[in-house]
């Protein structure tokens, strides 16, 4: 019998159970999408209730991004040490605690602390689910599985935003966080029931009972058991994060971190500020939530589009091209529209390409890094990127506060996606050159 269980998964068709696991991971990322954007849905009500101006609101909108940076760096590495499933469950607890606490906050400081806690859970969840999706899919469907997982983010915003648009007509802003907390708790038994630890992690880390757990997971996938595991490499690094800066991984680590940092700043400018921009145009808060929902409808379409194209086209050139189109879309969004219908349409187009860019980056990380550092790589890249991107909502708020109009602010914030595109094309050129020299 084969002694490499991950190779067995890579070379065999994906079973129904594997697709169910991927579907749950899509749901977890959808949960992340709603939890992160819950502050955007609630921000008009918070601003009205507490008299918060745009500059201060921009800082509040950045708080969970700071938590996400720390969560990605700390919990992403932990997912390579204790397991993807364990980290997912711990992150669900953190996210639920942060959401319920936010609903009871009484000022900007208390709300900001609650958003940091939520961000810790979201950051760790992103690292764990990205690695789990890559390791659940086979070799032929790995990029597709990761792209589907990442595409769950706007799905959560659509479903959550649609529900919040109704809830906000009858309740105050705390209902947004209360709803998010309840749904987050419901995912805990679902993960316990249906998401096993990944075979790649068990084969790499070898916890107690690894062989039995691997065979149990393989059986649930409809695959044959293995008789024994291959001996572990003697030179295996003890600290996975150190491998990100070895000679073969240094370039993708640096360039993908730069790409993620740039694009996610553009991405969060759009998602964090749409509700406030719409309200300032004279529309009610429920309409603001609806426009944000349309941006995420476009995000779902863009995510699916990228997932399909990634099975047919080369990943790096496709990802770089998506980044450049995303920058153009953000600039067009900044020109403003005369009515709500046109604004929703432009927001949907912008959401399509900005979300496709995020999906592209997750797929690139899954492709460029091996299993033993995949969660660490995801956590590092997301952590550094999200840490820097925490400045995006605050910078936009500062520019608005200084009197700059939407077109100028959008032009400045689109530069992040341009930087991302340049970094990805540079990585493609370096990898192509290395292949030609080999």
Under CATH, the homologous superfamily reads MFS general substrate transporter like domains
General form: globular
Q: Average pLDDT, to the nearest integer?
A: 86
What's the Cα radius of gyration? 21 Å
CATH topology: Growth Hormone, Chain: A
Strand count, sense and barrel status of the largest sheet are: none
Element-by-element helix/strand order: HHHHHHHHHHHHHHHHH
Question: Could you tell me how far the N terminus lies from the C terminus, measured between alpha carbons in angstroms?
Answer: 34 Å
Task: Describe, in plain words, how this protein is organized in 3D.
The protein is mainly α and 438 residues long. It has a single domain, classed as MFS general substrate transporter like domains (Growth Hormone, Chain: A, Up-down Bundle), CATH 1.20.1250.20. Helices cover 81% and strands 0% of the residues. The protein has 17 helices and no strands. Helix 10 packs antiparallel against helix 11 (285-310).
Write the topology of this structure:
Layout: H1 5-11, H2 16-50, H3 54-79, H4 84-103, H5 108-136, H6 142-170, H7 174-194, H8 199-205, H9 210-220, H10 247-280, H11 285-310, H12 315-333, H13 340-368, H14 371-389, H15 391-401, H16 406-413, H17 415-437
In a nutshell, what does this entry contain?
With 438 residues, the protein is mainly α. It has helices at residues 5-11, 16-50, 54-79, 84-103, 108-136, 142-170, 174-194, 199-205, 210-220, 247-280, 285-310, 315-333, 340-368, 371-389, 391-401, 406-413, 415-437.
